[in-house]
Fold this protein.
Amino acid sequence: MQKQVSQGETAVGGPQPTVTPLLQVRDVTLQYKTKQHLVTATYKVSFDVFQSDRFVLLGPSGCGKSTLLKSIGGYMAPTEGTISLKGKVVKKPGPDRVFVFQEFDQLLPWKTVKQNVLFALQASGKARGKEAADRALNYIDKVNLTKFADSYPHTLSGGMKQRVAIARAMAMEPDVLLMDEPFAALDALTRRKMQDELLQLWSDTRFTVLFVTHSIPEATLIGNRILLLSPHPGQVKAELNSDGSDPVGADGKKLSDRIHDMLFAEAVEQADAAPPR
C-alpha cells in the first residue's frame, strides 16, 4: 500500500499512531456466493479509523466498498481477517454503528420526520421519553428541518429525506456513522449542498464517519483521509490525506488528478498491452 503525501497533506503515519484507532480493519478478505460463483469482494484490506475522522472509501464500482461497509456494520463476517471497534471484534450489528443509504425510501412513510427519528432512539433503547424527544428535535434542527418536524416523508424532497436519514442516524450518537453513497441519487446542485451541510454538521459535532463513494471530487471534498481501492477484488492501492481544497502537489498535479491516475493507470496499461484485434 502506498501512502501518498503532497502539498496540503500531512503523512497519515505522522502523529496518529500515538492515538488508539477507533476502528481497526486488519487483512479483511470478503467473499460471498452466487448461484454459479464464489465472489471475492475484497482481498486483505487493512486500515485504521480514528476519532472524528472523515474516512472515505473510494474506488470504482464493484471494488467491494459497500460490501466492506456491510461487514463493518456487522452484517457480513470476514472470510479472513478481523474488524474491531474500540478494541472489540465486530461480530454482529449494533447501535454503535448506524447506516445512511442512498435510497430515499429508508424512512418509515407512515411516521412524521420527528417520529422517524424518535423511532430509532426508542426501538434501540438509546433514549426514551423527554430525553428522546429533545434529542430528536436537536438533530432535526441541526439538519435545518425544524419547520418540517411534523411532515410526512411523501411531502419532502429527496434532499430533505436524506437530511432526515442523517438526523436519525446522528441522534443515535453512534461511534461510527456508516454512509453508503448517501448523495448519489441526488441532482448535482442538491448533492453539493448536502455535502456542504454534512461538513458543517461535522464541524459542529465532530462525529466519526466512514463514507463510501466512487466520485473523486466528492472524496476530496468530504474526506480528511481517503483509502483508494483497486478494481475487483478490492485491494488497497494508497491512503491519502485531504484538506478539502484539492491542493496541488510538488508534481504540479491536483490531488484529484493524482487519485485519478492511481485508480485508472493500471486499466490504461492493460489496455495498451492488449494485442490488436
